[in-house]
Amino acid sequence: MSPPRLEGRRVIVRVMRHRDLAQIRAWRPFHDPLSPLWNIAPSRRLDPLRLLAGPRHDRDPRYTIERRGDGQIVGRMSLRDIDDRISARLGVRLGADFVDQGYGTEAIVLLLEYCFRTLGFERLYLDVAAVNVRAMRVYERMGFRHTGRHYRNVPAGVDLSFLELEPYHGLLGHFRRRFGRKQLLFYDMMLEHSEWEKQSARAHSP
């Protein structure tokens, strides 16, 4: 399942190596108070995509997004819940200093082409926190469509007091309290091979 070296104009997507972890650990933390909520781990009870995406293999491929020229690791990606070559779930994470520069978009395009054109996947899934509007817009532009929603428990110790500030009042509707825990809304999204073909054709049309 591990891909060859996928080279784009600005980034290279390749299999993660142990020595990459030092660069990843050295990433500067996000100052955005929402950042601890973007990648909350799912639970089996709350995550319907575990059923949709099929059985989980023992080895989930993990990749680094390497910037061309200087070898800086700017992000990482993964494929999880792989059901043969029918479907998988995509995970993407960038370092704080590398967002909004096009690195993530280029890397996703490279991996989508590998998954759909080379491996022949029928569909790819992902999930995104409702408060991660920037990421959701990127996925929508790529052709991912919303298929459902679910909630995840906010990890203990995450301070949500910033939601009381006026700039964040509009986000309160994405949270609820269940079973004594604060929960955050996540959107389930899916990209079909056929839709990817359409998006790819439009992107390469004169």
Question: Can you walk through the features of this model?
Answer:
There is one protein chain. The chain is α+β, with helices and mostly antiparallel strands and about 210 residues long. It has one domain: Aminopeptidase. Helix content is about 25%, strand content about 30%. It contains five helices and nine strands. Strands 1, 2, 3, 4, 5, 6, 7, 8 and 9 form a nine-stranded mixed β-sheet that branches. Strand 1 and strand 2 form a beta hairpin. It starts with 5 loop residues before the first strand and ends with a helix. Residues about 45-60 have low confidence and may be disordered.
Topology:
Blueprint: E1 6-7, E2 11-15, H1 20-25, H2 49-52, E3 62-67, E4 73-83, E5 87-94, H3 103-118, E6 123-129, H4 133-141, E7 145-153, E8 175-178, E9 181-192, H5 193-204
Short description:
With 206 residues, this protein is of the alpha+beta class. The protein has 5 helices and 9 strands; from the N terminus they run E-E-H-H-E-E-E-H-E-H-E-E-E-H.
Characteristic key phrases:
single chain, 206 residues, alpha+beta, Aminopeptidase, 5 helices
Compute the separation of the termini in Å: 33 Å
Which fold name is given in CATH as the topology?
Aminopeptidase
Structural class: alpha+beta
Shape summary? globular
Low-confidence stretches: 45-58
Please report the number of helical segments: 5
Question: Helix coverage percent of residues?
Answer: 10-25%
- Using only C-alpha atoms, the radius of gyration works out to 17 Å
Largest sheet: 9 strands, mixed
How many separate domains make up the residues? 1
